[in-house]
Write a structure and sequence with these properties.
24% helix; Naphthalene 1,2-dioxygenase Alpha Subunit, Chain A, domain 1; Rieske Iron-sulfur Protein
């Protein structure tokens, strides 16, 4: 078999997707929360959001609420966003600034290093010590200006967790791009239903005709390796795309376009709900470039919206009890296969 035949998916063993129950069963979702999202490095924001002591950014990771903050000594720290008294959230905005961390529920106060400092009107209790009730810390690391956290105390270094995303973006000035806009989408489907869709180009002609018209679909390639799916497509005249789309396990995407990139996180909000948080970055964020940048943002968002209907319809069919699992295209769904292999490994092969 020559290289061209391999690229076209000739003579590869037939592979199958995950069982339909994996896309809605509560027990599978709970395993994913604890064995995937509680163990991986998850992108939650930008280092530029934490310029000064007291600046913070908060996020949700499959039901785990977390936040990162620059403490008074300038050190980046991250915590579970859970007060140690009655489990209320400590910071309530997606980002902001505070000199101290005060839980609104009962007024417990923490410093920016997570230490419990005050417990107003709590009273005296034998054996109670403030030093035993600091915020639960989590790991935080920065890659090219982007903030990642891990709930796993034994997490491998971030660069290792990022897989081939590091190599594939090496030639792009990721840290030099300027953040311009964030867009949030909510979908009524499992996070894997959308992820399966993102990591393959097979659906492009049917679901994204304007997109298909400006790429050479016959030369669309998909490769899964080292925790990353890499998709390429040569661009035709008039395309606003860059021809490179990346996905990194379990929920980070990064797509390049001329003069910038978009980056997203795919957030499970339950067995049947998913939130997409897209950030758009540009090399030129001047007033003169504003209209051009807005047009690029809207075109990208339109492609995202076009996926909603098919993902939500497929979700209903996955739950209806007729479909079990389907064969994966050896030419176009290598990304799906790689994603499923990684997920099975995380969950110990429980899906079959």
């Amino acid at each position: 078999m020559n290289a061209d035949s391999a690229a076209l998916g000739h003579n590869k063993p037939l592979a199958f997707g995950l069982p339909a129950t994996w896309y809605h069963a509560p027990e599978i979702y709970e395993q994913e929360r604890r064995r995937v999202f509680a163990r991986e490095w998850i992108w939650i924001g930008r280092e530029s959001q934490l310029k000064s002591p007291g600046d913070y950014v908060a996020a949700e990771i499959a039901g785990y609420r977390v936040f990162a903050i620059r403490d008074r000594d300038g050190i980046l720290r991250a915590f579970h966003n859970v007060c140690r008294h009655r489990a209320a959230t400590v910071v309530e905005k997606d980002e902001g600034h505070c000199e101290i961390l005060r839980c609104r529920y009962h007024g417990w106060v923490y410093d920016t290093a997570g230490n419990l400092r005050k417990t107003p009107n709590f009273g005296e209790a034998t054996g109670f010590r403030k030093e035993d009730y600091g915020l639960h810390r989590i790991a935080i690391s920065v890659w090219r200006g982007l903030l990642f956290v891990s709930l796993d105390p034994d997490a491998a270094p971030l660069a290792e967790g990022l897989g081939d995303l590091v190599k594939e973006t090496a030639s792009y000035p990721v840290e030099d791009y300027c953040f311009v806009h964030q867009e949030v989408f909510d979908m009524n489907c499992n996070w894997k239903t959308y992820t399966d869709n993102f990591v393959e180009g097979y659906h492009v002609p049917g679901i994204h005709p304007p997109f298909a018209a400006v790429i050479d679909f016959d030369r669309f390639t998909t490769e899964g390796r080292n925790r990353t799916v890499i998709m390429h497509a040569p661009q035709k005249d008039g395309s606003f795309y860059g021809g490179l789309w990346l996905w990194r396990y379990p929920n980070t995407t990064l797509s390049v376009f001329p003069g910038g990139m978009n980056m997203s996180r795919i957030i499970p909000m339950g067995p049947r709900r998913t939130r997409l948080v897209y950030n758009f970055f540009f090399a030129d964020d001047s007033p003169a470039a504003e209209l051009r940048n807005r047009d690029t943002i809207e075109r990208n968002c339109q492609v995202v919206r076009e996926d909603f209907g098919i993902c939500e319809t497929s979700q209903g069919n996955l739950e209806a009890g007729i479909f079990d699992r389907g064969p994966l295209s050896p030419r176009h769904e290598e990304g799906v296969r790689h994603f499923h292999e990684l997920l099975r490994e995380s969950l110990g092969g429980a899906a079959g």
